[in-house]
Amino acid sequence: MNQAAHIADRYLAAWNERDPAARRAHVANVFAPDASYLDPIMRGRGVDGIDAMIGAAQQQFPGCRFALHGTPDAHNDVVRFSWSLAPGGAPADAAPLAIGTDVATVDADGRLVRVIGFLDAA
To answer: SnoaL-like domain: which residues (predicted)?
Structure first.
């Protein structure tokens, strides 16, 4: 698996983790301590802020799961990947609730330093 796909998979695993303690651990592993996240709807800063933001999104979309959409790519310290959000257990051909693209800067350890998200379809 290439580095971009590995980073995207870890990131989406944090968004999909429903257990609050396990999610917080995922966020701390995936994001740098002073990381920032910004998309058209929400923002978060630091591990605590990003964890709280993900928890709020999970409450807004109960039972929904994020999945990789397409193939991630990267150059230098920047990773770009797309995702889809659909109800858990939905048929593979079901239309997602949202599709987006995130662009992230990573540190030397592969942790996310800054994520900027875009909604491609909602």
So the answer is: 9-115
- Per CATH, the number for 3-121 is 3.10.450.50
Tens of each residue's pLDDT in the chain, 122 residues = 589 999 999 999 999 999 999 999 999 999 999 999 999 999 999 999 999 999 999 999 999 999 999 999 999 999 999 999 999 877 767 789 999 999 999 999 999 999 999 999 98
**The whole model's pTM is what?**
0.93
